[in-house]
Amino acid sequence: MAFKTTRLDRFIARSSGFSIADTRLLIAQQRIIVDGLPAESAQQRVTAFTQVMLNGKALNDTKAVYLMLNKPQGVVSATKDPKHATVLDLIQHPAKESLHIVGRLDFNSTGLLLLTNDGAWSRKISLPETKLRKTYEVTVSTPMNEAYISAFQSGIYFGYEDLMTQPAELEIVSPFTARLSLVEGRYHQVKRMFGHFQNKVLALHRVSVGSLTLGGLELGDSRLLTRRELERVGLD
Ligand code: URA
User: Fold this and answer.
1) 25, 120, 214, 228: least buried by Cβ within 10 Å?
2) Rounded distance from Cα 106 to ligand 1 centre (Å)
């Protein structure tokens, strides 16, 4: 389970200002309702998305939201920007102000971008150990050759971080186009990997993240992830 859990008595004390002792009394008096049922004990575990009511009033009403957007070019992967439209401007969901971005795409990159208000989930799927595979369609300015495939497989040295990139799979589709599959998401990673060959990335489109794919989602459109998709990507 990706959600961070907290003991019910601590959670109530934090969100209501009652002392822990008073909180336990409220639970014993059955005045605390957790997801529609009287609280069982002070040790019961709850998350930020559990509905906890005291005297009929919700102490928290945060609902987890998980969205995918097909990001168009010319939109910033940020929630605020002084100059440009942001990905948030493209989203209609009522809780959109609570969302953050999971694995940004550059201004001119397009494709699958995830947004959520569940910090534990986004941290989990962004962890290097999770090795969630991201696949991109890439168009470059000079023809590629077989040397790219073995170099990307062996790893490219990134001087700034002083590391070798994880093995990446490159499938050359035509001299100027390829599909690249990575398990990490470093700053401008794809551009820097092609930069190793002094080859400029002209277009970059993310087609999948783990088992999530855009399907028929049009550029600029967004939709909620389904429960089944969430189960497959770090929420079980
Ligand atoms: N790598 C890049 O260089 N840019 C992106 O937008 C995504 C991955």
Assistant:
1) 228
2) 6
Q: Which domains does the chain have, with CATH numbers?
A: 5-60 (3.10.290.10), 66-232 (3.30.2350.10)
- Indicate whether residue 186 lines ligand 1 (CB < 6 A): no
Tell me the two tokens of residue 89: 């401007």
- Strand extents, DSSP E, the chain: 6-7, 32-34, 37-38, 45-46, 52-54, 57-58, 66-71, 100-102, 110-116, 134-140, 157-158, 163-164, 169-174, 177-182, 201-209, 212-213, 222-224
pLDDT tens digit sequence for 118-176: 888 898 898 888 889 999 999 999 999 999 999 999 999 999 999 999 999 999 999 99
Which one of 107, 113, 190 would you pick to mutate in the ligand 1 pocket, going by the greatest count of ligand atoms within 8 A of its CB?
A: 190
Q: How far is the CA of 102 from the centre of ligand 1 (A)?
A: 13
Distance 94 CA to ligand 1 centre (A): 29
Name the amino acid, one letter, at 170: L
Residue 34: CB within 6 Å of ligand 1?
A: no
Instruction: Assess whether 106 carries a catalytic annotation.
Output: yes
Q: Which of 89, 106, 118, 236 is catalytic?
A: 106
DSSP state, residue 212: E
Residue (of 233, 232, 39, 6) closest to 127 by Cα position: 233
Instruction: Say if residue 70 is exposed, middle or buried (CB neighbours under 10 Å; 0-12, 13-18, 19+).
Output: buried
The 10s digit of each residue's pLDDT in 25-71 is 999 999 999 888 899 999 999 887 778 888 877 777 667 899 999 99
Contact call for residues 183 and 155 (beta carbons, < 8 A) = no
